[in-house]
Amino acid sequence: MKRTKIVDAVKGGELIGQDVCVKGWVRTRRGNKHVQFVALNDGSTIKNLQIVFDLNRFSEEELKAITTGSSLCVYGKMVESMGRGQVCEVQADKFEIYGIADPAEYPLQKKGHTLEFLREIAHLRPRTNTFGAILRVRSVLAYAIHKFFNEKGFFYLNTPLITASDCEGAGAMFQVTTLPLENLPCTEEGKVDYSKDFFGKTTALTVSGQLEGELGATALGAIYTFGPTFRAENSNTPRHLAEFWMIEPEMAFYDITDNMDLAEEFIKYCISFALENARDDIEFLQEMYDKELISRLEFVIHNDFVRLPYTEGVKILMESGHKFEFPVYWGCDLSSEHERFLVEEHFKRPVILTDYPKEIKAFYMKQNEDGKTVRAMDVLFPKIGEIIGGSEREADYNKLLTRIEELGIPMKDMWWYLDTRKFGTVPHSGFGLGFERLVLFVTGMANIRDVIPFPRFPGNCEF
Ligand code: 4AD
Ligand code: MG
Question: In sequence order, what are the beta bridge partners of 263?
Fold first, then answer.
C-alpha cells in the first residue's frame, strides 16, 4: 500500500473510512489499559497524526518500544476522531518499528528544551516542533524567492564561491589554500609563494556574488543570485553568521528608485507567500515565541516603507534626545540601535535609508553630485535592523576608476569589473537580501543561529 504523508492524512477528507499506511517518528505515547494514543509526525507538517492502539488487539509488551523518537510504519483505518484537537485518527491494524530510541539516551525524550540547549544538539533539533516549523518556513521562503524573480523574467545566475578578488570589501575573508601550512613554500624575499598554491594565486571564499552578478546583468539584463556567502568577522551577535545565504538581484537600466521599488515589492511578496503557504508553522511560532508575529508581518505587507536620505535620518537621531550606546553624527556608520530607533520608535514602519556618506559605503556605488554621498539604499526592519543593502552602481568608467585608485584597490583585481563600464556601460542597480535575516523576521525568532540548519559562527563548526 502506498504511504500517505501526514500533511495529507490529518485532513481526513476522502481518506475517512479507507485503509492507509503512514510512517513517521513518535512524538508522544499516552493512554490507559484499554487504549494507547500515539502522536506521529513525519516532518511534512507541524501537525501530528493520532494513531489509536486498541489493547484488545495489541499487548502492552508489543507497544513498549514505541517511545518518543522511535520510528514507525502503521497500517490501519482512517476514522473520524471523537476526541478534541484532531479531525481524524488512524485505528492501527498492524505496525512495524523501524528504529527504537532508547528513552534513557534520546536527548529529546522530554519536551520544553531551551533554544540554547537545542543549539548544542543541532544534529537532532530539526526533529522538534520549533525547528521543524522554522525549516519549513525557510524552505517556503526560498521557493518564494525563485518564484518572484522567475515571474519577473530575471535569470538565476550562479556566481563563484571561490574568488580571487576581495574588491567588495564587505568583510574579512576566509582564505582558501591547499598549501601545507606547516611548511609553506617561500619566495626569495621570504614571503609565502602563492604561485605554488592550487590556483597559482591567493584565493578566498566569497563575501558576495555582486560583482560577478553585474557581469550577468550587463549581458542578460536582469539576474539574481541565491547562494552562500562567507564572512570571517569575529561578530558574535544575534544577527551575524560566518556562513549565510544571500539573494542578490542586479538589473541593467534600473536607477535607485526602480531598485527601491523592486526591493519593497520583493520583500512584501516573500512575506505574503510565507503567510499563505506556511500558515500553520507561523501560527505555531507565534503561539510559542512571539504573540505579535502575524500582525507585524501583515503590517509590513500593507504599509509603504518610509524612504529617507541618511542625512535626514541622522538629524532625527541627533534631535531625538535618546541616549545611544554609540554616538550619532553625520558620517557615522549607523549601528543596529540607531536603525531600530528609526524603524521602531520614530517611524514605526520599515525605512529605506538612502544617500549615505561615500566613506562608509563600497567603492562601486554611484556618486551623487554633492561629492559627499553615494546612491546607496539600506532597508531597515523592525527587530532586525538592516535586512537589505544595495545601491545604484557607478556606471561612469572614469569616476569608478578614480574611486578605485583613491581607495588603493589593486587594479590586477579589478580589470574585468571595469570592462563592464568600458564596453557598453549602462545605468544599473542591485541589492543583497540576507536570507537568514528574512527568515528571522518571518519566524519571529530572536537569534540568527536558530534559523539556519547548521550555523557557523566564531568558535563553532559542528559536522
Ligand atoms: O550590506 P551587505 O554587506 O551588502 C553586500 O554584500 C552587497 N554586495 C549587496 C548588493 O548590493 N548586491 O550585505 C547584504 C545583506 C545585509 O543587508 C544583511 O541582511 C546580510 O546581507 N548580511 C548578513 N547576514 C548574516 N550574517 C552576516 N554576517 C551578514 N552580513 C550581511
Ligand atoms: Mg550593508
Answer: none
Cβ-contact 249, 282 below 8 angstroms = no
Q: What is the 434 CA–ligand 1 centroid distance (Å)?
A: 5
- Ligand at minimal distance from the CA of 432 is 1
Does the pLDDT at position 167 exceed 80? no
End-to-end CA distance of the chain: 37
**For residue range 135-161, what is the model confidence (pLDDT) as tens digits?**
999 999 999 999 999 999 999 999 999
| Residue ID of nearest Cα to ligand 1 atom 20 | 434
Average confidence (pLDDT) over 260-267: 98
Residue 243 CA to residue 451 CA, distance in Å, equals: 12
Residues framing ligand 1 (Cβ under 6 A): 168, 170, 208, 210, 231, 240-241, 244, 246, 248, 386-390, 430-432, 434, 436-437
Quote the Cα angle for 117-121-122, to 5°: 110
On whether the CB atoms of residues 294 and 286 are closer than 8 A, the answer is yes
d(CA 389, CA 249): 11
Neighbours of 31 (CB within 10 A): 14
* Residue whose CB lies within 8 A of the most ligand 1 atoms, among 435, 437, 441, for a mutation test: 437
Residues 242-255 pLDDT 10s: 999 999 999 999 99
For residue 102, report the distance from its CA to the centre of ligand 1, in Å.
43
Section 8-17 average pLDDT: 97
Q: Which of 212, 246, 343, 388 to mutate to test the pocket of ligand 1 (most atoms within 8 A of CB)?
A: 246
- The pTM assigned to this predicted structure is 0.97
Angle at which helices 435-443 and 279-289 cross, to 10°? 70
Helix (H, G, I), strand (E, B) or coil at 36: strand
* Average pLDDT for 128-135: 97
